[in-house]
């Protein structure tokens, strides 16, 4: 067993940390308050090459391994959760299907500019009436004259209102539920494709989230991504493991930031004649979250290692995401208690940690749904 990062990974972490400290953190509050997508920051960031973290070098990517990419996601969440969401959408779900299944022509037209940050991508699963229940997808794709005609609406789409292309989950065989689902590439400017409402979100602000509308949108056959039709859901498994572990490490970073910030506050804030950090009940919160944070982080990196080694790890990815996110919920709650009334003041970061952390409960799967699958998996294996 070896629990250490390589020298290259440590060096990469220090580079990303430096970028986050210099470029993102000075703008964190402004991004959160304005809820505007920081396009200038995006362009500067794209120039560093990070948007191609997991894509091959021949398309302009960095072709990084899974564990090193997790180091990146962990450090990114220390800056702005909203900006981190926009960036990680571009790196993972937003470009994954195009990178894996797109024709060479699609890769040159869509993936190469996406890696340069010139085009913004996203993934569209969720609809108004169906989030966890993908089989409830009502967006349809009907085969016609060398292509497919898409009709439907997608909701809660990260980067949606500003996207140049999207990967859309649609039903190709109504009545067949999961077995009829497929992914299609739709690009901005295609007749019938438009954006609906932007959503004013509680947290992760600065990533623009909203509705996308498909009204008789025709796409050619090559825009059906993957063998199909009907194989969409099976392809999500590999990338969902990465998304879940990434979400867990985002949670670890937010928890760590919140608890450290509360620690500095506890050393300064005086009550009953001494710093509140001298009280045992306050100290116990740090001890507990030190342990939980270490455990969650180790679990996430273990799951990342399993992905990298090609080991089956669907359960480990879900477990580590769920554990890290629940740990984060507890950490941001306890950290805000340490701040007392000041946790309510918008000038301190604690209120933002509380709001941002809540998205992680849904991203990569709601915990109630994950527990259904995990409980069944556990009972099968004992
Ligand atoms: C900020 C943000 C960004 C997002 N970005 C994207 C995006 O880019 N693309 C995209 O496609 N989606 C996106 N989503 C949507 C997200 O994926 C969904 O919110 C998530 O899948 C949950 O679906 P839902 O909100 O419809 O909740 P529902 O599925 O309606 O669930 C509601 C509640 O019921 C519970 N529940 C549901 N089914 C079961 C069950 N079988 N057993 C027990 N409990 C159950 C859930 O756990 C939850 O507590 C985003 C959401 C947010 C908040």
What does this structure look like?
The protein is an alpha+beta fold and 382 residues long. Helices cover 50% and strands 15% of the residues. The protein has twelve helices and ten strands. The strands form three sheets. It has a four-stranded mixed β-sheet with strand order 1-4-5-8, covered by helices on one side. A four-stranded antiparallel β-sheet has the order 2-3-7-6, covered by helices on one side. Strands 9-10 form a two-stranded antiparallel sheet. The model has no long low-confidence stretch (mean pLDDT 97). The site of flavin-adenine dinucleotide has 20 residues, from strand 1, strand 3 and helix 12.
Mean pLDDT: 97
The proportion of residues in beta strands is 15-25%
Strand arrangement within the widest β-sheet reads: 1-4-5-8
Give the ordered list of helices and strands.
Answer: HHHHHHHEEEEEEEEHEEHHHH
Query: Any ligands, ions or cofactors bound here, and which?
Result: flavin-adenine dinucleotide
Low-confidence stretches: none
Number of strands: 10
Instruction: Determine the fraction of residues in helical runs and give it as a percent range.
Output: 40-55%
Rg measurement, Å: 21 Å
Major β-sheet annotation:
4 strands, mixed
SS-based class:
alpha+beta
User: What's the tally of helices?
Assistant: 12
Form type: globular
Cα distance spanning the termini? 25 Å
């Amino acid at each position: 067993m070896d629990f250490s990062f390589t020298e290259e990974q440590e060096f990469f972490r220090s580079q990303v940390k430096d970028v986050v400290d210099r470029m993102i953190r000075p703008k964190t509050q402004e991004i959160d308050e304005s809820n505007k997508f920081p396009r200038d920051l995006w362009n500067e960031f794209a120039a560093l090459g990070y948007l191609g973290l997991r894509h091959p070098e021949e398309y302009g990517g960095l072709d990084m391994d899974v564990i090193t990419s997790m180091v990146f996601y962990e450090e990114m969440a220390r800056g702005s959760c909203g900006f981190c969401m926009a960036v990680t959408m571009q790196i993972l779900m937003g470009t994954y299907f195009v990178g894996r299944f797109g024709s060479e022509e699609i890769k040159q037209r869509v993936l190469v500019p996406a890696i340069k940050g010139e085009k913004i991508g996203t993934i569209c699963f969720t609809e108004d009436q169906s989030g966890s229940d993908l089989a409830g997808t009502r967006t349809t794709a009907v085969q016609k004259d060398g292509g497919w005609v898409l009709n439907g609406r997608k909701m809660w789409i990260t980067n949606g209102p500003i996207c140049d292309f999207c990967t859309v989950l649609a039903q190709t065989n109504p009545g067949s539920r999961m077995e009829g689902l497929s992914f299609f590439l739709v690009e901005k400017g295609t007749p019938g494709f438009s954006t609906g409402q932007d959503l004013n979100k509680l947290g992760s602000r600065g990533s623009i989230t909203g509705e996308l509308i498909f009204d008789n949108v025709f796409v050619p056959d090559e825009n059906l991504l993957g063998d199909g039709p009907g194989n969409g859901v099976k392809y999500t498994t590999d990338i969902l493991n990465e998304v879940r572990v990434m979400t867990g490490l985002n949670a670890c970073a937010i928890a760590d930031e919140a608890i450290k910030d509360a620690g500095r506050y506890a050393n300064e804030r005086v009550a009953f004649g001494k710093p509140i950090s001298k009280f045992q009940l306050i100290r116990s919160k740090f001890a507990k979250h030190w342990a939980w944070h270490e455990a969650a982080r180790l679990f996430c990196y273990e799951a990342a290692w399993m992905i990298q080694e090609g080991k089956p790890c669907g359960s480990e990815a879900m477990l580590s995401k769920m554990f890290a996110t629940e740990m984060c919920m507890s950490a941001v709650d306890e950290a805000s208690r340490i701040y007392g009334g000041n946790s309510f003041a918008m000038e301190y970061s604690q209120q933002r940690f509380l709001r941002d952390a809540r998205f992680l409960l849904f991203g990569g799967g709601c915990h109630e749904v994950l527990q259904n699958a995990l409980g069944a998996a556990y009972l099968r294996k004992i």
